[in-house]
Amino acid sequence: TEVEVLVDDSELSELKKNIGHAKEKLYGHFGQSGRRAEKNRLAHGCEGILRTTGQHPGGIVVLPHGEEIYSFTPIQRPANDMKTSIITTHFEYHSIDHNLLKLDILGHDDPTMIRFLQDATGVDLNEIKFDDKVVMELFSSTAPLGITSKDIRDIPTGTLGIPEFGTDFVIGMLVDTQPKNFSDLIRISGLSHGTDVWTGNAQELVNTEGMELSECICCRDDIMLYLIAKGMDPELSFKTMESVRKGKGLKDEMKEAMIAANVPEWYIDSCLKIKYMFPKAHAAAYVMMAWRVAWFKINKPLAYYSGFFSIRAGIIDYATMCTGLATLEDTLQQLLDKYKKVGKKKMTASELDQIRDMRLIEEMYKRGYEFAPIDLKTVDAKYFRQIDDKRIMPSLKTIEGVGGSQADNLVNAIVEASKDGDFLSVDDFRARTGCSANLAQKFKDLGLLGDIPDTNQMSIFDFLN
């Protein structure tokens, strides 16, 4: 197969140089030498090929009975590790998609979050109705949380931390569209996952033309169903939907059939702008998850915050995020000031995660809830836990320097050591738990070890006093 790679002259020169080095290594590997002309010929043949392969997190290729993947594409192993059991196809999927079926089996945090909330509260998901007016209000107001938008830096909705609806982009969509029911949320999910479906397209129709959300093209299914309702041939309606949702626009026969069916010009123009569209079934599944999480946020807030901080949050630092509202707000303001100054593209992924997480922590404080100090004898290594009606205890991994299996091991060591009595000093704590000196000192600085002395030894002056 041929793969077109767009490079400028400097990149092409560098690529040729790298290919030349690779050829030298290849000849050396087999103990051979070659003429310069032969090396250049082989190097020229390598120009334009893929230098790296992409790996889909959950793409499963389904083969016909009796066939092997080698019948359709070469395979390779990542990082040239011939011992690994993992293999990837060499060709980009769309070069073989006319012969093979690919299933997207993706991993999501939402089901894990839902299970956590069920276990923490005992609530049956069947109790959560999709016509709950209070939950619906959360997508347009902060009132269901018992706070105002001014309490959380003028964020107009209560959807911070709600999957699919907590980003600034989608919050802006909620403000523009003012969804009134569950089906509107499905449309918004379709719009937010598409490419050139909302921005420069449906957004203009809603804001400048006064069009209702239900009239816009939101999910790929909308096109086929709309065209069939207009009287177009069902098969042609399906092909039109497929062409538009893949960003291939409209063929002449499609456009002619749409005009003959009295499809409005704005609808045809909207189809021509679209580069990718989300399926309605995906959108509905995502919104169902989001709705349930929103219900817990309103009705079981401490379980919700515990679940979010345990499962969905990035790196939460105990010292700056969990020791009081004042410290949190100072750090958050610094990050927001930087965001305004340099823009999103120059912020690190970690900083953007911190802004998201600290906004939610600030909201939690404003609702009247807070963090309890970590108790080393009862703390969990990974999960935040509800302590009482107003507080949750952070996990041990929120302390800088503690992470992964280290947190589990340290929690187990502290529990076992505590069975032999209280810790007499920092040195005693270290000796009985195997904790490092730096981490033990951090625990003391954070007040987690109480007022115990650094050492068990007493000076003569302590004795005389």
Main sheet: strand order: 5-7-6
Distance separating the two termini: 87 Å
For the biggest sheet, the summary is: 3 strands, mixed
In sequence order, what are the helices and strands, one letter per element? Answer: HHEEEEHHHHHHHHHHHHHHEEEHHHH
| Shape call | globular
Structural class: mainly alpha
Written account of the structure:
The protein contains 20 helices and seven strands. It has 465 residues and is mostly helical. The strands form three sheets. It has a three-stranded mixed sheet, covered by helices on one side. A two-stranded antiparallel ribbon has the order 1-4. Helix 1 packs across helix 2 (36-46), helix 3 runs parallel beside helix 12 and helix 6 crosses helix 12. The longest helix has 21 residues, at 9-29. The chain starts with 8 loop residues before the first helix and ends with a helix.
Task: Describe the SSE topology.
Elements (H helix, E strand, L loop, with lengths): L8 H21 L6 H11 L12 E4 L12 E2 L11 E2 L11 E4 L4 H13 L11 H6 L29 H10 L4 H12 L4 H10 L12 H10 L4 H12 L6 H9 L4 H9 L6 H20 L1 H12 L5 H4 L3 H18 L6 H18 L3 E2 L13 E2 L4 E3 L11 H14 L7 H8 L3 H9 L14 H5 L1
Parallel strand pairs: 5-7
Antiparallel strand pairs: 1-4, 2-3, 6-7
Helix pairs in contact: 1-2, 3-12, 3-13, 6-12, 8-9, 12-13, 15-16, 18-19
